[in-house]
Specification:
The protein has 21 helices and 22 strands. The chain is of the alpha/beta class. It has a six-stranded mixed beta sheet with strand order 5-6-7-3-8-9, sandwiched between helices. The longest helix has 36 residues.
């Protein structure tokens, strides 16, 4: 095994009175592929800055092999003092030379830049690509990357993945992009409560290993007779529990994708109008032959689709392809040049765009959620105590009076999501929602979307997130043409492959031990007795669950409940979560069966 080029030993650092790092360690050798993971605010970026020599720890030792080149990519690069992007990139060499210039030119061209750009006018994506060129240009011995995919589009992320894979550098990577972590990492360092634990495997094995470590810790605590508080249990193990629950939700997502695939295809005007009447509001968006141009550039050309209630549509493509334009066309925010867009009735829309909404740094977390009045927040028409609602978004009760201005980036992201999901809506528009979010917040957003009963339109460059959330993908094919693919991002890639396209065009029978089995979509010609019975009984179940949720919400609306009986508050919160999950499942089952009945009868 090669000797480490960079080591951190027993690193400690305290901000104010709170220890951030307490005995953390890191070792990187040539060719290593290390991902650094941990909860938001655990100190990952700080540890990386210590590794880069930019922050001095209170205690511990940093050692770098003499002559080893180390390059660090910050989340917010500083371009001050540089007139062009080329000047900024070449400064990263630490010297000048013809070879250096050729390397810088090559990387800038690969990243879609000329080198003549003014750094002060760069977009977020251009700034990120420029900063990447600077750290990659010297082909350093050690490469320290803090969220390198932020603001990159899908082609940029895939290029970066290939470029990093080809380097001989030792790499330490912090990222919320699961797919990138899974494909690049061979070692995982987990920073938790100030200390580091190392798994000599990649990120794909991390979550199972982490869960086992936490479960063993809990067992050891019980053996010592120490009780873990309910609130700590929720905050520390909530992500694990949600991930396990999402195994079932992934099954539901596959069912939704199958339904969407069966509904694909262009819809004519006559059928569309009839469907709108028959579906009674379940038709959310209908676009017919929509086109949009800016000057000579066609962004959307002759595009038609329909979006039904409950669909979760991802929109993907490189920066500048027109994803946001297509999103605005579908939601009616932008009129088409030709064609028509019809929106369903009774739509209540919430939009989270790339700029995010502004938070008042002087407000407390509680005030930001309640509007500054009282201790309750209205969620889905029901009053809930703000502390209970905060816990849904991984905030502890003690954070209720924390000023928004001192929250970390991930915590502010969770607060924005909490405010958005508290508002009544049945159509959720998300434009790059995963930018700057940590893994835990992404897990939380995924859970909330899995529970969301309405329709979702999503623009994202996060491949794993798309696979976990959407039922269909709208992808650009160039020249303003967009294609609707059933399934997630990986499904889209498979359908785009030449051999798969031909196979998908003609349904084929599957061979079985007793002969040939018909495709399920062709074999089902009527509803089973079980389906009909479920369709008849589900409305009563849904009504009962709605009454139970209303009763639990009334109990949680009591502002004194938490202070009076924290255990009862926890039990009631848990019961509410289970009832809401059951309601979402029952409503989705009813909708699926009702649509099947209408298709058969129609």
């Amino acid at each position: 095994m090669a000797p480490p080029l960079l080591t951190l030993q027993d690193i400690s650092l305290t901000f104010g009175t709170t220890p951030l790092l307490d005995g953390a360690a890191l070792a990187v050798s040539a060719g290593d592929r290390v991902c650094l993971v941990g909860r938001n605010g655990s100190g990952k970026s700080t540890l990386l800055k210590i590794a880069a020599g930019l922050v001095q720890p209170d205690a511990g030792r940093r050692f770098a092999q003499p002559g080893a080149t180390i390059r660090y990519l910050p989340q917010e690069p500083d371009f001050s003092g540089f007139d062009t992007t080329m000047a900024y990139v070449e400064a990263g060499f630490g010297g000048a030379g013809a070879g250096d210039h050729h390397r810088a030119t090559y990387l800038l061209e690969q990243l879609g830049l000329t080198g003549a750009e003014d750094p002060s006018t760069l977009s977020g994506g251009e700034a990120r690509r420029t900063a990447l060129a600077r750290v990659l240009a010297p082909e350093p011995d050690i490469l320290l990357l803090d969220e390198p995919t932020n603001h990159l589009d899908l082609p940029g992320i895939e290029w970066l993945e290939q470029e990093l894979g080809s380097l001989r550098s030792g790499i330490v990577l912090i990222s919320h992009d699961r797919r990138l972590l899974e494909r690049l990492s061979r070692t995982t360092v987990w920073l938790d409560r100030g200390i580091t634990r190392q798994l000599d495997q990649g990120f794909a094995q991390f979550e199972g290993w982490r869960d086992a470590v936490l479960e063993q810790e809990e067992t050891d605590r019980h053996k010592l007779g120490r009780k873990i508080a309910m609130e700590e249990d929720w905050l520390r193990y909530g992500v694990t529990a949600r991930r396990k629950r999402n195994v079932k939700r992934l099954g539901d997502l596959h069912a939704l994708r199958k339904r969407h695939k069966e509904q694909r295809g262009a819809v004519g005007k006559v059928r569309m109008e009839a469907a709108e009447a028959d579906l009674s509001g379940r038709l959310v968006i209908v676009a017919e032959d929509v086109s949009k141009s800016y000057g000579d550039r066609v962004v959307v050309r002759d595009f038609s689709t329909r979006v039904l209630r409950g669909d979760r549509i991802g929109i993907v493509g490189p920066n500048g392809a027109g994803k946001t334009t297509l999103l605005n066309l579908l939601t009616g925010a932008l009129p088409p040049d030709t064609g028509t867009v019809k929106l369903g009735t009774n739509l209540a829309t919430i939009t989270l765009d790339q700029r995010r909404e502004t938070l008042d740094p002087n407000q407390t977390l509680k005030q930001a959620l309640t509007g500054g009045a009282g201790d309750t927040v209205t969620v889905a028409g029901q009053n809930r105590h703000v502390v209970g609602y905060m816990k849904d978004f991984l905030f502890g009760p003690e954070q209720a009076n924390t000023p928004v201005g001192v929250l970390s980036g991930g915590e502010r992201g969770r607060l924005i999501l909490a405010r958005a999901f508290a508002r009544p809506s049945n159509l959720l528009i998300l434009d790059e929602p995963t930018n700057d979010l940590d893994l835990e917040t992404l897990d939380l957003l995924q859970e909330r979307l899995a529970e969301y009963a309405g329709t979702v339109l999503l623009v994202s460059h996060d491949r794993d997130f798309l696979d976990r959330v959407v039922t269909a993908v709208l992808a650009t094919e160039g020249d303003g043409r967009w294609t609707d693919y059933a399934g997630g991002y990986t499904d889209m890639l498979a359908q785009r492959a030449p051999l798969r396209v031909e196979a998908a065009a003609v349904p084929r029978a599957r061979a079985t031990g007793s002969g040939v089995e018909k495709p399920a979509a062709l074999g089902r010609r009527k509803m089973t007795f079980k389906d009909r019975h479920a369709l008849e009984t589900l409305p009563a179940q849904i009504a009962a669950l709605q009454q139970e949720i209303a009763r639990l919400n009334v109990a949680l609306a009591d502002p004194e409940l938490y202070a009076r009986d924290a255990a009862r508050f926890q039990r009631t919160s848990s019961a509410l979560g289970k009832a809401q999950a059951s309601l979402a499942e029952a409503e989705e089952q009813w909708l699926t069966l009702e649509m099947r009945r209408e298709e058969l009868e129609g």
